Amino acid sequence: MPLIMGMDSSGPTLTVCAFDGQKMAALRHTGIKQEQFLLPLVNRLLAKFDVCLQDVKKIFIVRGPGRFTGIRISLTFASMLQSLNGTEVASATVFEILHLQAVRSQAFARWKKENPAGVPAVVLHAFRDEYFLQFFDGKNEPPLWLSKEQLLEKLAMRPEPLYCVGTDKNGACLLELLGDTCRLAPMADCRVRPQTLIDMSFDSEYMKNALEPLYLKPARFELGQ
Questions:
Q1: Exposure of 149 by Cβ count < 10 A (0-12 exposed, 13-18 middle, 19+ buried)?
Q2: How far apart are CA 122 and CA 7, in angstroms?
Q3: Which pLDDT belongs to residue 218?
Q4: Is the pTM here over 0.85, yes or no?
Q5: pLDDT of 30-84, one tens digit each?
Q6: Interior CA angle at 33 toward 16 and 220, to 5°?
Protein backbone atom coordinates (compact mmCIF):
# COMPACT_ATOMS: atom_id res chain seq x y z
CA MET A 1 0.00 0.00 0.00
CA PRO A 2 1.31 3.50 -0.81
CA LEU A 3 2.49 5.57 2.14
CA ILE A 4 0.02 8.06 3.61
CA MET A 5 1.32 10.98 5.66
CA GLY A 6 -0.55 13.21 8.10
CA MET A 7 0.61 16.61 9.34
CA ASP A 8 -0.62 19.21 11.81
CA SER A 9 1.34 22.45 12.22
CA SER A 10 -1.60 24.68 13.17
CA GLY A 11 -0.65 24.89 16.85
CA PRO A 12 2.46 25.01 19.04
CA THR A 13 3.15 21.30 18.54
CA LEU A 14 4.12 20.02 15.11
CA THR A 15 2.79 16.51 14.50
CA VAL A 16 3.73 14.24 11.61
CA CYS A 17 2.52 10.69 11.12
CA ALA A 18 2.51 8.02 8.45
CA PHE A 19 0.75 4.77 7.60
CA ASP A 20 1.88 2.11 5.12
CA GLY A 21 -1.13 -0.17 5.32
CA GLN A 22 0.27 -2.23 8.17
CA LYS A 23 1.84 0.05 10.73
CA MET A 24 1.51 3.67 11.78
CA ALA A 25 4.13 5.91 13.36
CA ALA A 26 3.96 9.47 14.65
CA LEU A 27 6.45 12.08 15.85
CA ARG A 28 5.92 15.43 17.58
CA HIS A 29 8.01 18.50 18.27
CA THR A 30 6.94 21.49 20.34
CA GLY A 31 8.55 24.88 19.89
CA ILE A 32 8.80 27.98 17.73
CA LYS A 33 10.17 28.13 14.16
CA GLN A 34 8.59 24.85 13.12
CA GLU A 35 9.83 25.39 9.57
CA GLN A 36 13.38 24.75 10.78
CA PHE A 37 12.73 21.31 12.20
CA LEU A 38 9.97 20.16 9.80
CA LEU A 39 12.20 18.34 7.32
CA PRO A 40 14.40 16.67 9.98
CA LEU A 41 11.24 15.43 11.71
CA VAL A 42 9.78 14.18 8.41
CA ASN A 43 13.03 12.42 7.54
CA ARG A 44 13.06 10.69 10.93
CA LEU A 45 9.49 9.56 10.33
CA LEU A 46 10.17 8.24 6.84
CA ALA A 47 13.23 6.38 8.09
CA LYS A 48 10.91 4.27 10.24
CA PHE A 49 9.38 2.96 7.02
CA ASP A 50 12.64 2.89 5.03
CA VAL A 51 11.16 5.18 2.36
CA CYS A 52 11.71 8.71 1.04
CA LEU A 53 9.49 11.64 0.15
CA GLN A 54 8.92 10.29 -3.36
CA ASP A 55 7.06 7.36 -1.77
CA VAL A 56 4.41 9.56 -0.13
CA LYS A 57 1.31 9.05 -2.26
CA LYS A 58 -1.14 11.03 -0.13
CA ILE A 59 -0.81 13.67 2.57
CA PHE A 60 -3.54 14.82 4.94
CA ILE A 61 -3.04 18.22 6.55
CA VAL A 62 -4.83 20.48 9.03
CA ARG A 63 -5.76 23.67 7.19
CA GLY A 64 -6.70 25.81 10.17
CA PRO A 65 -7.59 27.69 12.16
CA GLY A 66 -4.48 28.44 14.18
CA ARG A 67 -1.17 30.20 13.79
CA PHE A 68 -0.84 31.87 10.37
CA THR A 69 2.76 30.73 9.86
CA GLY A 70 2.00 27.24 11.12
CA ILE A 71 -0.88 26.75 8.71
CA ARG A 72 1.30 27.94 5.84
CA ILE A 73 3.97 25.36 6.73
CA SER A 74 1.65 22.41 6.11
CA LEU A 75 0.06 24.00 3.04
CA THR A 76 3.43 24.75 1.46
CA PHE A 77 4.81 21.29 2.21
CA ALA A 78 1.71 19.56 0.80
CA SER A 79 1.74 21.81 -2.29
CA MET A 80 5.41 20.96 -2.87
CA LEU A 81 4.71 17.21 -2.71
CA GLN A 82 1.77 17.62 -5.04
CA SER A 83 3.84 19.52 -7.60
CA LEU A 84 6.97 17.33 -7.45
CA ASN A 85 5.48 13.88 -6.86
CA GLY A 86 1.84 14.14 -7.87
CA THR A 87 1.01 13.42 -4.22
CA GLU A 88 -2.71 13.55 -3.47
CA VAL A 89 -3.64 16.18 -0.89
CA ALA A 90 -6.56 16.08 1.53
CA SER A 91 -7.28 18.32 4.49
CA ALA A 92 -9.73 19.27 7.20
CA THR A 93 -10.17 21.99 9.78
CA VAL A 94 -9.44 21.47 13.46
CA PHE A 95 -13.20 21.85 13.98
CA GLU A 96 -13.97 18.93 11.66
CA ILE A 97 -11.29 16.73 13.19
CA LEU A 98 -12.30 17.29 16.81
CA HIS A 99 -15.97 16.95 15.93
CA LEU A 100 -15.31 13.57 14.31
CA GLN A 101 -13.26 12.37 17.28
CA ALA A 102 -16.03 13.42 19.65
CA VAL A 103 -19.00 11.87 17.85
CA ARG A 104 -17.15 8.58 17.42
CA SER A 105 -16.65 8.25 21.18
CA GLN A 106 -18.66 6.17 23.61
CA ALA A 107 -18.98 9.22 25.86
CA PHE A 108 -20.80 11.11 23.10
CA ALA A 109 -22.99 8.10 22.27
CA ARG A 110 -24.15 7.90 25.90
CA TRP A 111 -24.76 11.67 26.04
CA LYS A 112 -26.64 11.68 22.73
CA LYS A 113 -28.90 8.88 23.93
CA GLU A 114 -29.83 11.03 26.92
CA ASN A 115 -30.00 14.23 24.81
CA PRO A 116 -31.30 13.30 21.33
CA ALA A 117 -31.70 16.97 20.37
CA GLY A 118 -28.25 17.87 21.64
CA VAL A 119 -25.68 19.62 19.46
CA PRO A 120 -21.89 19.18 19.36
CA ALA A 121 -19.78 22.34 19.47
CA VAL A 122 -16.04 22.84 19.09
CA VAL A 123 -14.48 25.56 21.28
CA LEU A 124 -10.80 26.44 20.97
CA HIS A 125 -8.67 29.18 22.46
CA ALA A 126 -7.52 31.56 19.71
CA PHE A 127 -5.58 34.51 21.14
CA ARG A 128 -5.58 36.24 24.53
CA ASP A 129 -9.26 36.33 25.56
CA GLU A 130 -10.64 35.27 22.19
CA TYR A 131 -11.93 31.91 21.01
CA PHE A 132 -12.86 29.87 17.97
CA LEU A 133 -16.34 28.35 17.88
CA GLN A 134 -18.29 26.12 15.51
CA PHE A 135 -21.61 24.36 16.05
CA PHE A 136 -22.33 21.07 14.26
CA ASP A 137 -26.11 21.07 14.09
CA GLY A 138 -26.54 20.07 10.45
CA LYS A 139 -27.13 23.66 9.34
CA ASN A 140 -23.59 24.22 8.01
CA GLU A 141 -23.04 27.17 10.30
CA PRO A 142 -19.65 28.80 9.64
CA PRO A 143 -16.94 28.88 12.30
CA LEU A 144 -16.42 32.08 14.26
CA TRP A 145 -13.61 33.93 16.04
CA LEU A 146 -15.17 35.59 19.09
CA SER A 147 -14.29 37.46 22.24
CA LYS A 148 -14.75 35.52 25.46
CA GLU A 149 -17.93 37.48 26.18
CA GLN A 150 -19.33 36.79 22.71
CA LEU A 151 -18.49 33.11 23.02
CA LEU A 152 -20.31 32.70 26.31
CA GLU A 153 -23.27 34.64 24.95
CA LYS A 154 -23.46 32.44 21.83
CA LEU A 155 -23.38 29.28 23.92
CA ALA A 156 -25.99 30.60 26.35
CA MET A 157 -28.36 31.46 23.48
CA ARG A 158 -28.54 27.87 22.23
CA PRO A 159 -31.77 26.18 23.33
CA GLU A 160 -30.38 22.65 22.87
CA PRO A 161 -28.05 20.80 25.23
CA LEU A 162 -24.43 21.21 24.07
CA TYR A 163 -21.56 18.75 23.95
CA CYS A 164 -18.36 20.80 23.81
CA VAL A 165 -15.01 19.53 22.63
CA GLY A 166 -11.79 21.56 22.56
CA THR A 167 -9.23 23.25 24.76
CA ASP A 168 -8.61 26.52 26.57
CA LYS A 169 -5.34 28.44 26.88
CA ASN A 170 -2.20 26.30 26.75
CA GLY A 171 -4.25 23.23 25.95
CA ALA A 172 -6.12 23.28 29.27
CA CYS A 173 -9.55 21.81 29.88
CA LEU A 174 -12.55 24.03 29.11
CA LEU A 175 -14.03 23.49 32.57
CA GLU A 176 -12.87 26.80 34.07
CA LEU A 177 -14.17 28.70 31.03
CA LEU A 178 -17.50 26.94 30.49
CA GLY A 179 -18.32 25.47 33.89
CA ASP A 180 -21.48 23.36 33.80
CA THR A 181 -23.06 25.17 30.83
CA CYS A 182 -22.45 22.13 28.61
CA ARG A 183 -21.18 18.57 28.70
CA LEU A 184 -17.43 18.50 28.13
CA ALA A 185 -15.81 15.82 26.00
CA PRO A 186 -13.01 13.74 27.53
CA MET A 187 -9.63 15.41 27.06
CA ALA A 188 -8.47 12.48 24.92
CA ASP A 189 -10.94 13.67 22.26
CA CYS A 190 -9.99 17.35 22.57
CA ARG A 191 -6.61 17.20 20.80
CA VAL A 192 -5.92 16.15 17.23
CA ARG A 193 -4.87 12.49 17.17
CA PRO A 194 -2.53 11.18 14.44
CA GLN A 195 -4.80 8.18 13.89
CA THR A 196 -7.68 10.52 13.07
CA LEU A 197 -5.64 12.24 10.36
CA ILE A 198 -4.89 8.87 8.78
CA ASP A 199 -8.51 7.72 9.05
CA MET A 200 -9.84 10.91 7.43
CA SER A 201 -7.36 10.60 4.55
CA PHE A 202 -9.44 7.72 3.17
CA ASP A 203 -12.51 9.94 2.74
CA SER A 204 -12.47 11.59 -0.69
CA GLU A 205 -14.71 14.37 0.66
CA TYR A 206 -11.64 15.95 2.26
CA MET A 207 -9.83 16.26 -1.06
CA LYS A 208 -12.06 19.16 -2.11
CA ASN A 209 -10.31 22.54 -1.76
CA ALA A 210 -7.62 20.75 0.20
CA LEU A 211 -5.11 23.59 -0.11
CA GLU A 212 -7.52 26.33 0.99
CA PRO A 213 -6.47 27.66 4.41
CA LEU A 214 -8.93 28.63 7.12
CA TYR A 215 -7.66 31.69 8.97
CA LEU A 216 -10.87 33.40 10.24
CA LYS A 217 -11.08 37.04 11.31
CA PRO A 218 -10.25 38.11 14.88
CA ALA A 219 -13.18 39.20 17.05
CA ARG A 220 -12.07 42.85 17.03
CA PHE A 221 -12.54 42.95 13.24
CA GLU A 222 -15.90 41.21 13.46
CA LEU A 223 -16.94 44.01 15.83
CA GLY A 224 -15.79 46.65 13.34
CA GLN A 225 -13.09 48.04 15.59
A1: exposed
A2: 20
A3: 77
A4: yes
A5: 987 888 889 999 999 999 999 999 999 999 999 999 989 999 999 999 999 999 9
A6: 100
Three-state DSSP class for 29? strand
**CA 193 from chain center: how many Å?**
9
Spatial distance between the Cα atoms of 1 and 24, rounded to a whole number of angstroms = 12
Domains, the chain, in order of start with CATH, read 3-93+192-215 (3.30.420.40), 95-189 (3.30.420)
Q: How many angstroms separate the CA atoms of 31 and 66, rounded?
A: 15
- Cα 58 to Cα 46, 78, 81, 182, 206: the distances in Å are 14, 9, 9, 37, 12
Contact 63, 208 (CB under 8 A): no
Q: CB atoms < 10 A from the CB of 52, how many?
A: 11
The residues near 39 (Cβ < 8 Å, ≥ 6 apart) are: none
Beta bridge partners of 62: 92
pLDDT range class, residue 220, cuts 50, 70, 90: low
